[in-house]
Amino acid sequence: MILNGKQVAADRLEILKGEIRSSGLTPQLATLLVGDDPASRLYVNLKHGACSNVGIGSVGKTLPKEASTGEVIRAVEELNRDAEIDGILVQLPLPPQVETHRVLEAVDPVKDVDGFHPCNLGRLMSGSPLFVPATPLGILSLLGHYRIPVAGRNAVVVGRSIEVGRPLASLLTCADATVTLCHSRTRDLAAITRQAEILVSAVGRPRTITAPMVRQGAVVVDVGTNFVDGKLCGDVDFAAVSAVASAITPVPGGVGPMTIASLLENTIRAARMRRCTPV
């Protein structure tokens, strides 16, 4: 079974569009891009386009690639003070001279629709999340749409980034999976991945996951976005692993669209929190 994130995301965005229309709100998302990396600019443009399609306003701020940590933090603080902005997204990765953790800590937690602020990551770890990072949230939404059970299953996540691996491990744990988090220092990776009933790869290396590494009938989620010979591919050897897995996400058209849908869902939630008086 192909887990069609593109279609599921389109359906969710259509629902979100109706919710925004009926709410009377005009949520506003701000993006901050540092530098001119083509892939980062593409991702930012896709997010702005998705905002326009569902009725979320969006503004983009760009700083030169030579910007210092202090300059980036000042830009974030300006967006924090802007009462019209409900959500702030700092496009990662930042240039090497910028201290990413300091920039993410500068984002107002109630505007942190990416879910990377330590407060939001801490709430996720404690089991009471406010904003969950969009990619892990999109993965759980995709599994839920296809009624793939998570509770009680062995889940293996390959990659320990704060964008995907670590928060996804926490989210799966909250959903009652038994989770193993693997990384570059994991010994005998294949022996561990073969135990997975749900296998997620988020390492950013093409064809890291091959068919002999996958348990028969496993659900395989590919978060990778890599370019090989000018073509986009994931971390998983799709053709070979498809013959072993019971369900698999394609690249493109799998996790990526779900990430954008989840980001916009977080944005309308932030707008409601900031603008609506609790009953």
Quote the distance from N terminus to C terminus: 43 Å
Mean pLDDT, to the nearest integer, reads: 95
Total E-strand runs:
10
Low-confidence stretches are none
What does this structure look like?
The chain is of the alpha/beta class and 279 residues long. The protein has two domains: 24-110, 3-Layer(aba) Sandwich (Rossmann fold); 134-256, Rossmann fold (3-Layer(aba) Sandwich). 42% of the residues lie in helices and 16% in strands. The protein contains ten helices and ten strands. The strands form three sheets. It has a five-stranded parallel β-sheet. β4 (154-158), α7 (165-174) and β5 form a beta-alpha-beta unit. The termini are far apart. The model has no long low-confidence stretch (mean pLDDT 95).
Keywords:
alpha/beta; 10 helices; three-stranded parallel sheet; Rossmann fold; 279 residues; 10 strands
Short description:
This protein is α/β, with parallel strands linked by helices and 279 residues long. It has two domains: 24-110, Rossmann fold, CATH 3.40.50; 134-256, NAD(P)-binding Rossmann-like Domain (Rossmann fold). The protein is built from ten helices and ten strands.
